[in-house]
Amino acid sequence: MGLLKKFLRGVYFFCVGVKAASRDFNRWYRSNRNIPKPLRNRAALAVMTLAIVAGGWGMFYAASHIDLQVGALQVSADSEKPKRTVPQVQSQAEQQAEPEEKPAAEKDSEAQRLASQIAENESKQQEQLAQDDGAGAQMSNLKLPSSASSDVDAIASATRYNEISDEELTDAINNNADQYYSAASSDGSGGTVYTPPAAGDIAAWKAINPDVRGWITISNTNINYPIVIGSYNDYYTHLGYYKEASRNGVIWFDSDTKFNSKGEITSQNAVLYGHNWTNCWRPVRIGNPNDVMFAQLAAYDDAQFAAQNPYVRIKTEGGDHLYQIFSVFYTTLDFAYNYADGDVVADIIKTAKSKSIHNFNVSVGSKDQIITLSTCTRILGQSLGENQRFVVMAKKIS
User: How would you class 243 by CB atoms within 10 Å of its CB: exposed for 0-12, middle for 13-18, buried for 19 or more?
Assistant: First the structure.
């Protein structure tokens, strides 16, 4: 009975997945501006789907019948081939068992012929050995011209590497680490506080994908990604930065986020989303390279990590800004924290501070500009499924 329930549950979730994928594809198709507008409707999509299914079935039908016809032709051709009879060959043992008797005079002449042939072969081998020894002596005395040896030396030097000592390697590694944590400072209580590293090249990525609007970095994580924005909120749910199908996806702004002509964020609450497939349970992992996109955001569940990394860097085309974290919390989707603007933002800030699992002692006003980083979790329990999120909020300080 338990096995049947698991099977039916699997079928149910498979159907739910197919339904969700179909819905997302339908939204993508109807909002894709690369498709001519007269074709961006359900009727055209249904006709094309039927045509693709019918074409695939026709190709499968034709391929299967071709295989059957080829098999039938091969069978008929094999049946028409003439049968060959293989002559019987007497075995070597039987041949040796019945030797022919030769005359004595013929035996003596054959023995003399074999003896002379053996002597001739031995003399040839000795002559060959003498010639090889002479050639070896000549090769040992042969010298390459100076120009040839210098050419060979020049070619060999092109593949040589400059040696580096252990001390120099250690210095190089430490130098890179110092650059990454160059903004580290004391928090006044003996702990270390890190500032996020510099952002990447927004202009270069915008040339690849015009939806790129910014860059996010967080210290002591691999969160160092471009931020995109889609035409609707779920546009990038299953797409990568090249708009290819991607399970890991991207970091993307809520589609309600507003920007001015310089590329600066003007919305009071800029909400950013990112997937977390691998770090959804306690104890959370910190710094695991297999955790990508917002999976390492879960490290803020740890109080020490949160205290040492209190800043988020958001760079846009309009400027480079630091945000100070004031709340980290788990919530169900009953808490609508993703409004970009309006009087409701003040209530969102108040509720977020009350839900925080750490006390950051950061004052936030009702008019402060904030960012909200949202990702998946399962820490509130498997029974809630997709109806739970891990959220980090920070206010703009520079």
Answer: middle
Beta-carbon-side half-sphere exposure of residue 269 (alpha carbons within 13 Å): 26
Domain-embedded: residue 70: no
C-alpha radius of gyration, the chain, whole number: 39
DSSP structure class, residue 37:
G
Banded model confidence at residue 90, pLDDT cuts 50, 70, 90: very low
In a domain, 256, yes or no: yes
Percentage of the chain modeled with pLDDT above 70 = 68
Paired tokens of 286: 């910190």
| Structure-model confidence comparison of residues 267 and 123, the more confident one | 267
CB 217 within 8 A of CB 320: no
Structural tokens at position 342: 């309006």
- In the 8-state DSSP scheme, what is residue 160? -
**Domain range spanning residue 294?**
181-396
Residue recorded with tokens 């034709």: 62
**Structural domain total, the chain:** 1
| C-alpha separations of 114 from 99, 276, 391 in Å | 20, 87, 98
Residue 345's pLDDT band, with cuts at 50, 70 and 90, is very high
Asked if 189 and 304 count as a contact pair (C-beta separation under 8 A), the reply is no
Element (H, E) at 202: helix 202-208
Burial of residue 75 (number of CB atoms within 10 Å: 0-12, 13-18, 19+): exposed
Output the CA torsion sign for 264, 269, 272, 278: positive
How far is C-alpha 79 from the geometric centre of its chain's CA atoms? Answer: 54
pLDDT at position 70 over 80: no
Is 201 among the domain residues? Answer: yes
217-240: per-residue pLDDT in tens? 999 999 999 999 999 999 999 999
Residue 91 has pLDDT above 60, yes or no: no
Task: Check the CA dihedral 224-229-233-236 and report its sign.
Answer: negative
Q: Which CATH number belongs to the domain containing residue 286 in this structure? A: 2.40.260.10
List the Cα angle 308/200/236 in 5-degree steps. 95
Per-residue pLDDT band for 94 (boundaries 50, 70, 90) equals very low
Among 184-188, 306-310, 381-385, name the most confident range. 306-310
Residue 11 lies in a domain: no
